[in-house]
Description:
This protein has 311 residues and is an alpha+beta fold. The protein is built from eight helices and ten strands. The longest helix is centred in the C-terminal third of the chain and has 53 residues, at 256-308.
Amino acid sequence: MSEQSFSPAQAAHGHGMSSIKEALAGWGDVAALLRGGEGGSLVPVVIPKDSRGLRWLTFVWIAVWGLISAIFLFSSDHGGLGVTAIIVSILLLALAGLWWWRSSIVEIEEGTIGVLTKFGAISGRGLTPGRHYLWHPWAQVAYVVDVTTEIPYSAPVLSSPTAENVPLKSIEFFLRFRIIDAIRFVQTIGAGNFDLVLSNAVQDAIRQRSRQVRTEQAYDLRGSDVKDMQDILNRQLTRYGVQIMGSNIPDVQLPDQYRNHLSTRERVAKELSAYEQEWELIRKRRIDNLLIEIERSRRSATLASLRLRPP
């Protein structure tokens, strides 16, 4: 059996890392997927199923056939059947028009942008929230993109080395991002590829930061200022129409062996501090006792000299 190798980003997905993907769904499920995700994955982009088709043209062709038949019926002295054919054709045309009107309606959810395509190519700047009519038979909404929600993303980075090359057990990195350009996002990268790019960018940024920290100071990364890391990520992700809105490091875990060593050092340091405090108290007590003895001796000498003085 051949061995499989995994990148750090792929390995971290099994340890609580968020995942991002796009989903295919009907129009009725678009809002639920954008707000709640699917299968534990974040879904900022939904591909709506286009159920319109050109089936309404069937009624048009039948109506055309009926009108042609009516002409032949009138020419062959079957006027009654001709009138019936015309009426049926008109009804079919009305039904086809109603079907075409109803199937052309699309409703874009509040806070999203609909990416419109014609003949497979992206057309226009996107559909804003509300009702729209797609009269063109080959026009369709290829993507619905959430452009207002600040999407939370968690990325635990495993085995990130410190300045002494000690691999930390994990560094939890949390960020919020928002898609600011829906067209650029779906054109340049898409949700699935963005997941891989974002996880790798976070891995690199965290490893660069941990390399600047000594192991005994690793816990100082918790809640530290990560504005520089956020700026680096924004420079990398702006080209995809994405902006990082906020980030922080909520947790850092040291290796088990080093954590035990560190706890031993802390215990020894506490015992040494307690011993120093105790010794300081003993020293002060001895000095106080010595001062008391000196004062007592001075008083005794003074009394003795007074007694020896002649009256």
